[in-house]
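Researcher: Structure prediction, please.
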Amino acid sequence: MSSKAHNKRRNTGLLYEFLVRTISSALVEGNKKKSTVALKILRKHFKPGTELYKEFRLINALVSSTVSSETVAGSILVEAKTAAREHNAVALDREKSLLIRNINHMINDESFYDQHVNEYKTYATIQTLINDWRAPQRDLSRLASYEDQLVKWLTSEKAEEDERVLSEETGGTSRLLMKVMTKKLNEKYSGVLTEDQRVLVKAYAFATANDDPTVIQKKLTEIKARLLEEIAGYEAEKSGNVYVNEKLAEVKNQLLAETLEDVNDEAVTRFMLYTKLGSELGEKE
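Model: Predicted structure follows.
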């Protein structure tokens, strides 16, 4: 799909995608400050009730939907036009400008607007169409061409939806972030993480995205209890390996000292190592 006369810095769908990717990549890189700032911007500007959120929902629906026929697709275009024209264009433009200003000043990343988005051309075409539908004077030739392209998109097969998860509430944003973060973490450490470590990564991603520490605290408490049991079982066998016994005693003391009141990157990293030890003990058994 063509992106002529398109400004990616004012494309609501792309701005949302850029923010999500910034959050997930910053978390993978351990840049908690950057991920927190980007998440704060996303939640502030895309909260339900804002014109930005309304336009994003419309764009997201057109990007992710698949219909059975061109007739149905045509009906969707009619509804989409009506919805786009009902948005408060003045308020939307103001909200978009504030969002861009916050991104530029608070994230201050020259590569922010150059991040890869698989369906970039589709986002560009849809945003251009929405702008044209609202415009008092329209380029009818471009309008017809883009609407035809959108109909073809709506009736085409889509890749499995693994990153476009959004509900009516902000919680949907959290689930989207969790999926993207988990996917990136697993890709980065593919072949290195044990199953327990992958579960731990997913729990930490979920807790971070939802700003709910109880999720990761519960998982770490379970790991702590299980490892203490495994160490106790190993000690009961009275292994003659003095070095191993000393190291296990150290780990047990460290585990007992873990309060889990304030779970951060360092605490999760320690537990990643603990779970590796647990896997090794299981293999010895």
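Model: Residues 8-154 form one domain.
Researcher: Thanks, that helps.
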